[in-house]
Write a structure and sequence with these properties.
Layout (H helix, E strand, L loop, with lengths): L5 H4 L16 E2 L17 H5 L11 H11 L6 E4 L2 H12 L5 E6 L4 H9 L2 E6 L15 E7 L11 H10 L3 E5 L11 H6 L3 E6 L12 E4 L2 H10 L7 H11 L2 H24 L2 E3 L6 E6 L4 H10 L2 E2 L1 E2 L9 E4 L3 H27 L1
Parallel strand pairs: 1-11, 3-4, 3-5, 5-6, 6-7
Antiparallel strand pairs: 2-8, 7-8, 9-10, 10-13, 12-13
Helix pairs in contact: 3-9, 4-5, 4-8
The structure holds pyridoxal-5'-phosphate.
Length: 358
């Protein structure tokens, strides 16, 4: 037998949303930004490509400086990651010994569970209430690390701010607030970093800055936390191109703010339209909505949409087995989605009758 660690053998592994290698799908399944970055970000790429023989800047200095200007922190309080998933892993390896405890909500971003299991740490989950929200602060004295996403997937709403604050206040370990979707809302948690030295915020350029394919994320925290995490990361964790394109994107704040506004306005329209089509829909602070069709099984809806070349996300998780998660696409994409759903809905009573007869 190969010496595979038990915790690895016993972990099913993370199941990412489908990434079809054809372009004929309307892709509303992995919360990518539907709008491309400005083409100017590719202007100085040629020069950079000529340097591929050389290792990149190991500490992503320029990218962190530019990020610092946008976030309002010194670059010394910022660590760059190969996507924010890298940041989550670095945090685990910095703060948690195998056998110690990591806490997070259920349901939430499912990668927290995968990486914690692979790390050989124990998991303590706290169930959200029937509205997928917190009923109080998350208290887990044994946790060396608490992962909390706000907005929290799959619901997409910010966690209650007071409960989050109390969680930070009472935690004996580190609290990592995952702000992957924060740019699609009007609040963030910078003040918690300033108030509590055990709070770390993670950010990603995958969603709001249209760079999912480049893998750029950040950790922002106290000098001490960042200094320790810096020893744990891979020594060249961001390649040259990622560093350049990340820094370039940050130069186009107005462009991206315009996109975020557009996504928010399309999200409102999507939410209202789905309600009219007899879905249970939660209001979202992110670039996706969680919705439960009241006239068809969610898995069946997912499958039928896929047949019509519209990809949404379905999760096997028992709490959300009758929901689909829909990424906010362009207006045209959402129009097409709604059109297909309406067709399916019109056909559905007939289908039900048929299945009853057979
Ligand atoms: C998408 C997502 C991430 C991962 O972002 P990357 O930077 O692409 O690795 C992290 N956390 C949450 C909650 C996400 O939804």
């Amino acid at each position: 037998m190969l010496p595979i660690r038990d915790c690895v053998r016993q972990t099913p592994g993370y199941v990412p949303g489908e990434q079809p290698q054809t372009t004929d799908y309307i892709k509303l399944n992995t919360n990518e930004n539907p709008y491309p970055p400005p083409h100017e970000i590719f202007n100085n790429l040629e020069e950079e490509l000529k340097k591929v023989r050389l290792y990149p800047d190991p500490v992503s200095t320029n990218l962190r400086k530019v990020a610092g200007e946008v976030f309002g922190f010194s670059h010394e309080q910022i660590l760059a990651g190969n996507g924010s998933d890298d940041i989550l892993n670095i945090a685990l390896r910095t703060f948690v010994n195998p056998g110690e405890t990591v806490a997070f909500l259920d349901p939430t971003y499912s990668l927290y569970e995968t990486i914690t299991r692979v790390h050989g740490a124990n998991i303590k989950t706290i169930s959200t209430n029937e509205n997928f929200e917190l009923d109080g602060p998350l208290i887990c004295p044994s946790a060396k690390l608490i992962f909390l996403a706000s907005p929290n997937p799959p619901l997409g709403k910010h966690l209650n701010r007071q409960y989050l604050k109390e969680t930070c206040e009472k935690a004996t370990g580190v609290v990592l607030i995952d702000e992957a979707y924060v740019d699609f809302s009007d609040e963030n948690h910078w003040e918690f970093i300033k108030q509590y030295n055990n709070v770390l915020v993670s950010r990603t350029m995958s969603k709001s800055y249209s760079l999912a394919g480049m893998r750029v994320g950040f950790a922002i925290g106290s000098l001490e936390i960042i200094e320790q995490m810096n020893k744990v990361r891979d020594s060249y964790n961001l390649d040259r191109i990622a560093q350049i394109l990340g820094a370039n994107c940050f130069q186009f704040q107005e462009y991206f703010q315009g996109i975020w506004k557009q996504v928010i306005s399309t999200r409102k329209r999507l939410t209202t339209s789905l309600k009219k089509l007899d879905f249970l829909v939660f209001d979202s602070d992110a670039n996706f909505v969680l919705a439960s069709p009241q006239w068809i099984d969610a898995l069946e809806l997912y499958t039928k949409l896929k047949d019509k070349k519209v990809l949404v996300r379905y999760f096997k998780h028992p709490r959300i087995s009758n929901y689909v998660r829909i990424t906010v696409g362009t207006d045209a994409e959402i129009d097409r989605l709604l059109e297909v759903i309406e067709q399916l809905k019109n056909e559905s009573p007939n289908l039900r009758v048929k299945s009853k007869i057979s």
